Known about the structure:
Elements: H1 30-64, H2 103-108, E1 111-113, H3 122-129, E2 135-137, H4 146-160, E3 173-176, H5 194-198, H6 203-221, E4 225-226, H7 252-268, E5 272-278, H8 301-308, H9 310-317, E6 322-325, H10 343-353, E7 359-362, H11 376-386, E8 391-392, H12 398-414, H13 417-435
Helix pairs in contact: 3-4, 6-7, 7-9, 11-12
Amino acid sequence: xxxxxxxxxxxxxxxxxxxxxxxxxxxxxxxxxxxxxxxxxxxxxxxxxxxxxxxxxxxxxxxxxxxxxxxxxxxxxxxxxxxxxxxxxxxxxxxxxxxxxxxxxxxxxxxxxxxxxxxxxxxxxxxxxxxxxxxxxxxxxxxxxxxxxxxxxxxxxxxxxxxxxxxxxxxxxxxxxxxxxxxxxxxxxxxxxxxxxxxxxxxxxxxxxxxxxxxxxxxxxxxxxxxxxxxxxxxxxxxxxxxxxxxxxxxxxxxxxxxxxxxxxxxxxxxxxxxxxxxxxxxxxxxxxxxxxxxxxxxxxxxxxxxxxxxxxxxxxxxxxxxxxxxxxxxxxxxxxxxxxxxxxxxxxxxxxxxxxxxxxxxxxxxxxxxxxxxxxxxxxxxxxxxxxxxxxxxxxxxxxxxxxxxxxxxxxxxxxxxxxxxxxxxxxxxxxxxxxxx
Length: 439
């Protein structure tokens, strides 16, 4: 689906005050003892006063921290694992606030563009130079050789460095699908498919090697995001995932381990990983392709959570930077909306239940599964309002991204304070990813 076979510092711990040197007991008479006692008393008083002042400063700073309400007594800390949630991963380098951006620039940062052929169109370069592009996805049609795509990426980066771009110091998100096996846009690693890795004699080592190989391969031409690995748990031979060998196993524990191995190895190479397709396409039959048509997967909620969503726990614990959400409908979780348009799935299942705090990205916005949901503008609006951070416009037409950006700009301008704050929070997550795609 975009992507189918067709076609991203740990907070310091509590600081402990170092104990002062032990006071030396004075030798001599009572006068010296009284003198020492007075001095020690004064020092202790000063220390206690300083500590009290420090505590007041910290409390005041905490109270004034934007978007952080005081914790209720007895309430578990966010990401503590209460209620079965996975410990949340906070991307390093998360910005404290946004730079001054226009609504068009805020909207553009949430859009991933695509284009036809081997040369990016002048319109895309112009929008990049104005700070109205979050990133670009590349397909096989955009790549004739490693040297050619590296040259294109240099051209995109040059446009991004324009003085008109307030985000010129932040890199574009430059991505592709380098899963391995049949689904590769660049020649080279990873050569093995996920199924081949899962069936190999040393699957963990092969998964790590694939992650490292994918990271080095993409970084070598200037890309910083891979839309991989797939962590779907397939159900039967020849089904949607298995026909292209895109699943490690029918065992969710195997998928969980190998997916996390790939994620950690790739991100150690400086390229952000994306696990997909949440909450899972493993139950899809060979003909249930969301690129082509609407798909409904009647999987019980308990099975979704114990089988299909299971690998996401390990991926989140491993620090995965992005999660792609599928376009299938899961009636057990939301009877009407595809997952990527569903606040119940994006906000409820992924954010709240699993504790994911990184960047969410849609599958291809032009997918056939979304035909019942209006135009590109309608879909972009619904996805953003459902909680998707990045809108993936992979129809290989730059105007598709421009339509999505224009609609998101309209939504931002029409929104109230709460809606605009949520919009800005999405952009903050995207900028944090740009700052540190691998670490």
